[in-house]
Amino acid sequence: MCYNVLAQIYATRQVYPYTSIWALAWEYRKHRLIREIVSHQADIICLQEVQANHFEHFFQPQLYKHG
Q: How many whole angstroms separate alpha carbon 35 and alpha carbon 46?
């Protein structure tokens, strides 16, 4: 599975003026992203546009928790 999570540094009103600011917030998106990713039960996951701190503090522990 290959998934572009849209790094938070790019999720701005300037880049996405048509999107509500609450929908761009990392706190809103991160749980929906992990739910979508683990729902596919992929053996191999490639994540694009992941900030290092988001991978280390969120994705890695969450993916480990889901096996």
A: 15
- pLDDT tens figures, 4-38: 999 999 999 999 999 999 999 999 999 999 999 99
SS3 category, 2: strand
Torsion region of 21: left, alpha or beta (phi above 0 gives left; psi -120 to 50 gives alpha): alpha
pTM for the structure as a whole:
0.81
Token representation of residue 58: 């969120």
* End-to-end Cα spacing for the chain: 15
The residue behind tokens 């003026």 is 17
Q: Is 20 exposed, middle or buried (0-12, 13-18, 19+ CB in 10 A)?
A: exposed
19 residue type, one letter: T
